[in-house]
Amino acid sequence: MNIKTLSVTDINNYIKRIFDNDFILNNLSVKGEISNLKYHSSGHIYFSLKDEFSKINCVMFKSDASKNDFRMKEGQNIIVKARLSSYVKEGNYQLYVREAQDAGIGDLYAQFENLKNKLKDEGLFDEKHKKNIPSYVKTLGVITSETGAAIKDIINVVHRRNNSIDIFLYPSLVQGEAAPKSLIEGLKYFNERAKEKIDVIIIGRGGGSIEELWAFNNEELAKEIYKSKIPVVSAVGHEVDFTICDFVSDVRAATPSAAAEIISTDKEELLGKIAYIENKLNSSMENKIYNSRIRIEHLEKVLKLNSPKNYLINKYKEVETLKGLLDRSISLKINSEKQNLMKLKNVLEAKSPINVLNRGYVILESDKGEIIKSKEDFSSGEYKINFKDGYKRAEINIIKE
């Protein structure tokens, strides 16, 4: 028996015809929880419907979406009317939704909200407990899958921005029941057992459905992040994805790449800042030195003006000036007194009895030194006779009165 060889397209077209010709698959009513919801700019709506055990991709084209009377939300339980068909190009099957209506909040979303509210009430999300990311990170700890895109993105971004940052990976599970315990072990390792001092930790993974990210909605993991002594950056999924880790971590990054941007200072930018600060410091020091030199010169002038040495020199000059004035004053006084003395001398000489002696007269003194002025005082006896050039003592006897 010869079996005809078919192309991949032949197989996909055959499967599509089976789906399209099945009455039940063309008139489905399906209940499930919304995840990976995306309102596209084209007007189409892309999402998945899931239950406890599986999920199925869905698309609602613009023509049907415009007729929908409510806006779908992540985690919402809905009932859709749809047909199941295959997308030939990819070989995937999906639901093509015509109508959708609210069927209540999904179980996983409800669990998420309940845990978020509980931990918020316990204060795990309070801003006052958030630790600051160091301005300049030297060592980075990363907790994620060693084979995922997240670690590659982080390494690429960090090394592009600053290749001096050392990156230490703790390979962890990021999906499944065992993932929370593995993530917790990573936090404990970096906080307690790592040989290197870690400046900051990034915990996360790439994007996915709420089920794939569910490990990051674990209460024990949230409390371990809260207890971490090292600042923790949560980088789980894409920008639209939120997990409990995002709320309890010190910083939430939209993606792993964004987390790498947050913790790494651009090396060129840093070198530019250092050069700017160095120039500013040099300029400041030069100005400081110049201003100090000007001030020193000014103080030297003030010191010279007020120097004790200069003060003494000035005082010496004052003393010399005063001495000169005193000498002149004394000289004038002496000359004046000399003149007065000469006047008195002349008067005295004019009236001096010595001048009488110069004219041939003598002065007669008794033996008692009394000058004989009257004949009544004169009698026989010893007398002192004063001449102009000296004296003689003589015995005088009166012969006849």
From TrEMBL:
Keywords: Cytoplasm, Exonuclease, Hydrolase, Nuclease
Superkingdom of origin organism: Bacteria
GO biological process, one term: DNA catabolic process
CDD domains: ExoVII_LU_OBF
One Pfam family hit: tRNA_anti_2
Enzyme Commission number(s) of this protein: 3.1.11.6
GO cellular component: cytoplasm; exodeoxyribonuclease VII complex
Annotated ranges, domain OB-fold nucleic acid binding: 6-99
One Gene Ontology term of the molecular function aspect: nucleic acid binding
Residues annotated as domain Exonuclease VII large subunit C-terminal: 124-329
Compartments where found: Cytoplasm
Main location: cytoplasm
Catalyzed chemical reaction(s): Exonucleolytic cleavage in either 5'- to 3'- or 3'- to 5'-direction to yield nucleoside 5'-phosphates
Stated role: Bidirectionally degrades single-stranded DNA into large acid-insoluble oligonucleotides, which are then degraded further into small acid-soluble oligonucleotides.
PANTHER family: EXODEOXYRIBONUCLEASE 7 LARGE SUBUNIT (PTHR30008:SF0)
Subunit and interaction comment: Heterooligomer composed of large and small subunits.
Protein family membership: Belongs to the XseA family.
Protein name: Exodeoxyribonuclease 7 large subunit
Gene source species: Clostridium paridis
Gene: xseA
